[in-house]
Amino acid sequence: MDNNDQILDEFLQEVQEIFDQLDLDFVALEQNPDDKKLVGDIFRAMHTLKGSSGFFAFHRLEKVAHAGESLLSKIRDGAFALNEEITDALLATSDRLREIVANIQKQRTESAGDDTALIEWLKFLTDGGKGFPRPGKVVTSPPPQAATTAIEQSTNEQEKSTEPSISFQEPSPLLVADPLEVPEVRDAAEPERSTELAAPIKVSVELLDKLMNLVSEMVLARNRLLSFARTSGDLTFNNTVRRIDAVTLELQERMMKTRMQPINQVWNKFPRLVRDIAQDTGKKVDLIQIGAETELDRTLLEGIRDPLVHIIRNSVDHGIESPEERVAKGKPEQGTVTLRSFHENGMVVIEITDDGAGINLPLVARTAVAKGLVSAERVAKLTEREIIDFIYLPGFSTKDRITNLSGRGVGMDVVRTNIQEIGGNVDIATSSQGTRLRLSIPLTLAIMPAVFVRCKEHSYAIPQVNVFEMLRYEPQEGVPGVEDFYGVRVFRLRDKLIPLLFLNRELKLDNQLPPVDQPLNIVIVQAAGIRFGLVVDEVLDMQEVVVKSVGPLLRGTPVYSGITILGNGCVALIFDVAAIAVRSGIIAKLADNQFEQDISSTVDDKTIEQQMLLFDLLGLERIVMPLDAVDRLEMITASRIDRRGNEAVVVYGNKIMKLIPLTNYVEGATHRGLYGDETVPVIVHYHESQPIGFIVKKVHNIVSVPTQAVMVTQPQRGIIGSVIVNDSVMSILNVKEVLSLSGIGHFDDPAFAPGAEDVKGVISMDQEMK
Amino acid sequence: MSRSGSYATFYVDNFFFGIPIAIGVEVTKGQEVTPVPLGPKEVAGFFNLRGQIVTAIDMRVRLGLQTNKEQPDIVSIFFQNQDALFALMVDRVGDFTQVTEATFEETPSNLDATARELIVGAHKLADKLLLILDTHKIVSGVKLVQH
To answer: Fewer CB atoms inside 10 A, N or C side of chain A?
Structure first.
């Protein structure tokens, strides 16, 4: 019961915030009736309110909010503009909602009441009507306080008749006539409210960050003070320092604690939510929660609450099929929604998996065409991922029928907006076996335990979640330990061979490999399902670290998941163990349970696919080059092309662009005099900030090339290898070689490994070619 | 970008550079920079400035000049480029200088490509040229993927 009370309190607080925002938004909307964003905000607020009230089974609240939302959705879609009457109705709706909530706050349950008049009015307006007979005129009634004070069960009957009047008569003239009066209305209600709920103070993230930084600074100052106190003989001074030390320590601990909470805080609402939706839709759904104890920064927790509600509602309402359908498909009658949360690569990952029907991609594509978002011929060329992207657009819904649960096309855009606001991202994988949404939320604000190791003169942190064990290897006569496995050092750990990575080599600090018989400090780590040993110079200690972002310049260096400030004020980099494993090439695939594999295989295919541009050359068709190497596509009229010695150049912006006819450098293509009066397609590639134009015959489109399908063919000039996409063979252009042959680039130019981080297959093969 | 105003100045190699102090400049010295193995070569490393992580950019590398083994000064420039802080590692820090529009001269067109990207123009001072750097370009032009 306590738990429910707490949830209700949270709900009431949330609703109060929504109302406060709504008031401001309405006033702003009156002044800028054309502000689409504002309408969207109000709409979303209403939607959230409806969703939350559905969860508590506050039916009046839900119905009124639903009616208001319907009207707002018309305005949002531009079906008609805001006029005075609609504003009146919306304000009345807002007031009615507020009033119902005020009652809930006192009675802890929804009081009875009749909202039909208001709902009728809203429906009337939603259908495009004008001039609805105002209920305000009909009823003469007591002032609003009467409704909120009359809470006895026995007076409910009477209330029914009086209630509708209040919201119509009272706010309409007041709010519409003079929007500036609105805050007063709210203020009047405030004192009464505050006696009911002692709302905790909201502190902005920036302030918390600032405080956090100040505390770290204080710790550093204390450290200096401590070392000073050691050399000082003054007893009073030393005692004071000791006191400061103790207080600082506690301050630091408390500061960190204020931020972390288990994700369970949000999750514990969901069993009920799932049950209710399942019941409403006549489905059988089981909710499984894994990793509910995963701790998350509180500010982040708040950020994921609404998105999770939306996602779960979608999963149950849209995803899971009806029991009959499931049985027919050979699935268990009862559907399963799984929530899983864990730390991975310095991110908190929350996965919401259902074993339902999956997203109907053809339907999404058709809807996108029907809504005029994309042309029919274009949509046929889109990748699955691009089609999925449509569902993030505001107002996109494939449901022709609007239920009060979902189908309005609110949802995924809200989910993505909210998650992106806290710096995370959303990934969807879908198949007929189900859908998995993966929310990755960065640990920018989070704190985690990490093991510090030293390599050469610097120390690095390894997230403790990745650390399996730490050991010191002392070679002994006759006992096998570190061995040479044909050039790869392996370690025999309890009779299993574990590959070793030498940190100094992985980080390219030097290339030394210690002799086999030398003692080693090995940190056994685990990432993406495989275990390997990281050989370090020294294992230092374990510390709780505050993870900070590495900033924009390390985006191309995925070896580090974050950075942290040490006690002495220096900074240390935090490894992304999985990225190190990937980099070193020892990554293997994670074998999880069957269902997971079904979905993850589709996901994995995506992540190791590379986007390539497909084009033709004369006499040689279907050539691709990495999209990263493509900066622009241009059509250049032959008459604009100048000859400069042997080179063909064209004025491009304020620069001179050298043109390279690819046919001259790629074996198998037909040479031809370049210039006629036609325009030639040119792929612009920037090499050391100079534009280079590759002349091709025809540019097609962008294709996703699975890198594992790359095959090395016989070396052919200008071509790295071939790849099979949709049953046709494509040749991959060797950009590097072409540039080199045309006298521009060098083979070893580091700038010429576009997308190297993403595409192991191509790159390793590329290296073989050299 | 307004051409007149106050500039924080510093030396890299034989060149005299300035960045507008309007973006918030602070000069710090003797920071211990933690290097980033495998990171972009322009990034000298990171250091902590009052609890915030600062990315230090080695201006010699960034400008394509000869590297200097001596411990350089650090000029920290503060600007909110995606909420991150950056510092430029330079040879020596100069004074704050006030200049007017009148002394400004555009970049000559035969300037080296890297330099032209970074240098907006120059102010003709009595004894030398003050080369004005575009701080955003310094950061945004760093090649992220290196091998």
So the answer is: N
